[in-house]
Design brief:
By secondary structure, the protein is of the alpha+beta class. The protein has 24 helices and 26 strands. The longest helix is centred in the first third of the chain and has 25 residues, at 18-42. The chain binds 2-(butylsulfanyl)adenosine (IVH).
């Protein structure tokens, strides 16, 4: 970046002459602002945080020696070094959720069926759905009080986002004041910020002419443009907005999805003109075809169609699963395809020992993104498609899923290729890799697994990566790259080591801050980020343990059912005895099947896992799971539904019980508090009577929770 002749960048700060210092401050101001722009505008930094810190530290050191040389545009005048700390955090009062996906017409039919079945007796047979384009931008929440825009926030992780109020005010599609008189006191409008193809092309042309790096796609550019610290930069970018949802609202302007969209339109928001009200599956799929047909000519990116149940009362009753509503789904457009050369097949070892073949590709652009790797799924798939090194292959990328190799272009196969031989040994630790045989079906598993278990470094590293991942401990500054390096250097071998890093570093002869790529500030930030995770929600903690088959949903279920880590652990250890009450209870939890139950028992039955868990609990305190609705008479109670109910379908009964803080179990035990018995209740009712469990009719249950 700097000229060769008067380059003083290699001279230590305390040896610089005044003239050199002046030149250096000029260079650093330009360089830091260049990296700021890359980071914020493009969300694509060129250098590591540590190198960036080093630039800033050097700038500060020189300024400290020559205060009279401090430039008016000095980077030290701008606050904070860690970029993510520069926007204030905003907690969403109503979480910003994501959507489930459908990739085929059949999956849309299943969605419609699921919605109808959720209700009793054809109640929702005529339910209508709104079809809206799924805009490929970034979602924001805009809070209006008494019609005035007060707060604009990004989605973030759905619970907490960033305060970007100054930036959203520069977007002309977003009104500063809502039009009309019947505006609720509080209303959070939600929708998508995006950039058009034309504005994206114009911006890139200008950057190219100015010798600047160009942007990758409109979506990333819109995201980067909104996350500018300097709102005048956002203002210079032409961003647009469509409203399609809402968060907290003191009152709603209508009782249907379509009605609220129309009201938001009347208040001054752009709403998408392709939005359609559909009477059934045929019309929904027709809307999908229509949008796909006009997609290329829209001038902005859409990546599918979102269907939403129109009646808001039905939406409310349907509620949510994990992070997505039951009342909506995204029907994605077909995946984009490309052809490229497969250079190599690499075998990756996952945290549970699964050997996954990954195709290393000659880079190719698919749907605006450069793809270098694609999954080959497993051994059988490679054999079935006869994929070989050197082949030309067709790859496909759909939305956010991992690109995959679809097929081989046989006409382009080079002469000397050989069929791929899948290794029978783990590439990381050399242990045997085997395909387990399912005892029930007698069939071989499609996945080949390393049998090295705890001695396999690849599994250990992957478990650690999972441990710090976004939905687990989510430690800022400690990602996959750092975990690999720390493992290699012996700094972190087990999860608890992460929390001992700071203390050990203080005694280390080669402390982290002296390592290439790290500095005082970045190390300090890392330790602060680690400390911030010494408490975290129980469900995240359980998920972080990386127990086979225990994803986020199961982790939440376990957190809810057992309440505290000690209780979970004691129960799982006891459940090692399959005859125990604990094992029966575990299997009785609605949503936990035998595969999951056995994986849990196996995990807690392994002494090494218990040792690591203990060591971790000496450092970290998971917060006991608290049920949100605490003032209900069924909070914390366990209920079993049996027989056929009159007013509620089984699904709605379960969702309703959970909304009031009850746990729903699939079988009756001494720990059951209530059995709600409908028509033709059989063995469960009998068991309840034997055990003296309180039996309620459907009406009594509804009256108990206050829905009678
Ligand atoms: S509704 C509770 N409608 O898709 C439902 N989302 O995959 C909240 N998106 O984070 C989302 N167009 O960024 C909804 N018409 C639309 C949308 C849309 C784009 C995005 C949004 C959301 C993501 C979920």
């Amino acid at each position: 970046m700097s000229g060769a002749s008067n380059d003083a960048s290699h001279i230590p700060a305390d040896e610089l002459t005044k003239a050199q210092a002046e030149a250096e401050l000029e260079r650093l101001a330009a360089e830091i602002s260049h990296h700021d722009a890359l980071y914020y505008a493009k969300d694509a930094p060129e250098i590591s945080d540590a190198d960036y810190d080093a630039l800033r530290r050097r700038n500060e050191a020189i300024e400290a020696r020559f205060p009279e040389l401090v430039r008016p545009d000095s980077p030290s005048g701008r606050v904070g070094a860690a970029p993510s700390e520069q926007f204030a955090k905003v907690t969403h009062t109503v979480p910003m959720l994501s959507l489930g996906n459908a990739f085929s017409d059949e999956e849309v039919c299943e969605f419609v069926e699921r919605v109808r079945r959720f209700f009793k007796k054809g109640e929702a047979d005529n339910a209508r759905f709104v079809a809206e384009p799924k805009i490929d931008g970034l979602s924001v929440s805009l809070r209006y009080e008494k019609g005035e825009l007060l707060l604009g926030a990004t989605r973030g992780d759905g619970m907490t986002g960033e305060n970007v109020t100054a930036n959203v005010r520069t977007i002309s599609d977003i009104p500063g004041r809502l039009a009309g008189d019947n505006v609720p006191d509080v209303f959070e409008v939600r929708g998508e910020v995006f950039m058009t193809h034309a504005d994206f092309a114009e911006l890139n042309a200008a950057r190219e002419a100015a010798g600047k790096q160009t942007y990758v796609n409109p979506r990333n550019t819109a995201a980067g443009s909104l996350r500018q610290l300097d709102a005048s930069v956002t203002a210079a970018r032409k961003l647009h907005f469509f409203a399609y949802a809402w968060g907290e609202a003191s009152a709603l302007p209508a009782d249907t999805q379509m009605g609220v969209i129309e009201a938001m339109g009347a208040w001054g928001f752009p709403v998408n003109p392709l939005t359609r009200l559909c009477s059934g599956i045929e019309e929904m799929l027709a809307a999908h075809r229509e949008m796909e047909a006009v997609r290329a000519g829209l001038g902005y990116d859409i990546d599918g169609v979102v269907y939403k149940v129109n009646r808001l009362d039905l939406q409310e009753r349907l509620g949510f699963v994990s992070r997505a509503p039951r009342w909506a789904i995204a029907h994605k457009f077909p995946a984009e395809k490309a052809t490229t050369v497969l250079k190599d097949i690499e075998i990756q070892v996952g945290r549970t020992g699964a050997l996954t073949p990954v195709a290393k590709l000659a880079p190719v652009t698919v749907g605006g993104v450069v793809v270098r790797n694609a999954t080959l799924h497993n051994e059988d798939e490679i054999a079935r498609k006869d994929v070989r090194k050197g082949d030309t292959v067709v790859i496909q990328r759909a939305g956010d899923v991992i690109p995959q190799v679809l097929s081989v272009v046989m006409e382009r196969r080079p002469r000397d290729t050989k069929p791929f031989e899948f290794p029978k040994q783990c590439p990381a630790c050399g242990s045997h890799a085997v395909r387990e045989v399912n005892p029930k079906t007698g069939k071989e598993d499609v996945v080949r697994r390393c049998t090295g278990g705890l001695i396999c470094p690849a599994q250990a590293v992957e478990r650690l990566k999972h441990f710090v991942s976004r939905n687990a401990f989510d430690i800022e500054g400690l990602g996959a790259k750092q975990i690999e390096a720390f493992y290699e250097e012996g700094r972190v071998r087990r999860p608890d080591d992460i929390f001992k890093l700071e203390a050990r570093n203080a005694r280390d002869r080669k402390p982290l801050q002296e390592k290439e790529g790290w500095g005082e500030q970045s190390v300090k930030n890392l330790f602060a980020a680690i400390d911030a995770r010494r408490t975290l929600p129980l469900d995240r903690f359980i998920y972080a343990l990386g127990i086979r088959h225990v994803g986020e949903t199961t982790a939440r279920l376990l957190a809810k059912s057992y309440g505290a880590i000690e209780a979970l652990r004691a129960a799982m250890v006891a459940a090692g005895d399959h005859e125990s009450a604990e094992y029966a209870e575990l299997n009785a939890i609605d949503g936990i099947g035998q595969v999951v139950a056995d994986a849990l028992v196996e995990f807690f039955g392994e002494p090494h896992n218990i040792e690591v868990l203990d060591a971790l609990l000496a450092e970290v305190t998971p917060q006991p799971f608290v049920v949100e609705e605490t003032n209900s008479p069924v909070t914390g109670k366990t209920v079993v539904f049996t027989g056929s109910l009159e007013r509620l379908s089984r699904s709605e009964a379960k969702v309703m019980a959970e909304r009031y803080g009850a746990k729903v179990a699939g079988s009756v035990s001494a720990k059951t508090d209530y059995v709600v018995a409908g028509e033709a209740a059989g063995s469960k009712l009998k068991k309840a009577q034997e055990l003296g469990v309180r039996v309620l009719s459907e009406e009594e249950w509804l009256a108990l929770v206050g829905e009678g």
